[in-house]
Amino acid sequence: MTNKSSRNKTITVTEAEIRLLKRRLLIVDSRLDATDVIDKTILGDALEIIDYLPICFADMLFVDPPYNMSKVFGKTSFKRMASDDYESWVRSWFCKILSKLKPNASIYVCGDWRSSSPLFRVLSDYVKVRNRITWEREKGRGAKSNWKNVSEDIWFATVSDEYCFNLEAVKLKKKVIAPYRHDNGKPKDWKEEINGNYRLTHPSNLWTDLTVPFWSMAENTGHPTQKPEKLVAKTILASSKPGDVILDPFLGSGTTSTVAKKLGRHYVGIEIDRQYACLAEKRIEIAEQDKRIQGYDDGVFWERNLNPDASNKTEKKPRRRQLL
Ligand SMILES: C[S@@+](CC[C@H](N)C(=O)[O-])C[C@H]1O[C@@H](n2cnc3c(N)ncnc32)[C@H](O)[C@@H]1O
């Protein structure tokens, strides 16, 4: 066994923890009420479990499905298919999920350049596609005869024209490069602060202010395709209210449920791999004590995780409680 560096904050689950955490997982084989599923991690195949979920219970859907590439996820794996087959696979679960969403629900679906088009085709057949967010992921594997992939898409859609979008909750705090002043000397749309001059700007569909979680970040796990908490936080804050229910049928390491919990929302997550489902439960438990989201502080999103005051706050972080 290798020793972790003290700066390596990666969250792991031991076999002993899995034995405890798996008791919290919901195993489903019959139709459920909303009270059965709210704030639960369901262990199993989303394509079967969706049928058992109650009708019209979710206020927001966040989906980060396997992209159309061969990838191992714990004890299961996904095999790359022809684009048409991937589209049929997406359609097979997406059309079933629709009846689980409230009429004013918002939807976010993640993909890479290859899966993005099939995802768009399916979404546009059933819901109102409103935007494509492009996330500059930063990390990517270099290619010898192609461009390195460093971006992902997140489709934003809604079930109907009635939906919430909390603009004020997702403004981006940016450093002002050329601080313009009115004739009376007052700052135009920006504020002088101890650490510099800042402006709150409208969030665009190009997200360059967040990185893939890495080993020294408190949210990091060993999951191969973990989304940053800050990314999920933006979608949840924009498109839901406190107390709303967020559904994620491909939960992975539990980012969506963890962020929902941190932001005072309810969650329902489905994950096929037992170890990841337990990892999700462990993260949710940590979130009970530590509600911080890296890069989101004092109610605003900071550019590239760069809040100059955040280093002091890190010192006050409560020690992570051992589950055993
Ligand atoms: C792209 S990852 C999601 C990562 C997640 N957003 C996170 O931040 O950790 C997709 C996940 O879906 C799971 N999965 C694949 N097929 C599934 C199925 N049929 N039902 C439920 N989960 C499935 C995989 O095990 C994997 O953890």
Classification by helices and strands: alpha/beta
Overall CATH class? Alpha Beta
Through-space gap between termini: 19 Å
Strands, total number:
15
Q: Specify the biggest β-sheet.
A: 8 strands, mixed
Mean pLDDT equals 91
- Provide the gyration radius in Å: 20 Å
The number of distinct helices, counting runs of at least 4 residues, comes to 9
Strand content: 15-25%
| CATH architecture type | 3-Layer(aba) Sandwich
> How does the overall form come out from the CA principal axes?
globular
In this entry the ligands are: S-adenosylmethionine
Spell out the helices and strands N to C. HHEHEEEHEHEEEEEEHEHEHEEH
- Number of domain units: 1
- The CATH superfamily bears the name Vaccinia Virus protein VP39
From the 3D structure, determine the CATH topology: Rossmann fold
User: Uncertain spans, ≥5 residues at pLDDT below 50?
Assistant: 311-324
What is the spatial order of strands in the main beta sheet? 1-13-12-2-5-7-6-11
Helical coverage, percent range: 25-40%
Describe this structure in words.
With 324 residues, the chain is an alpha/beta fold. Helix 4 (83-97) packs across helix 5. The longest helix has 16 residues, at 274-289. It contains nine helices and 15 strands. Mean pLDDT is 91; it is low at 311-324. 26% of the residues lie in helices and 23% in strands. The chain has one domain: Rossmann fold, CATH 3.40.50.150. S-adenosylmethionine binds at residues 45-47, 64, 66, 73-74, 76, 223, 225-227, 250, 252-253, 255, 270-273, 276.
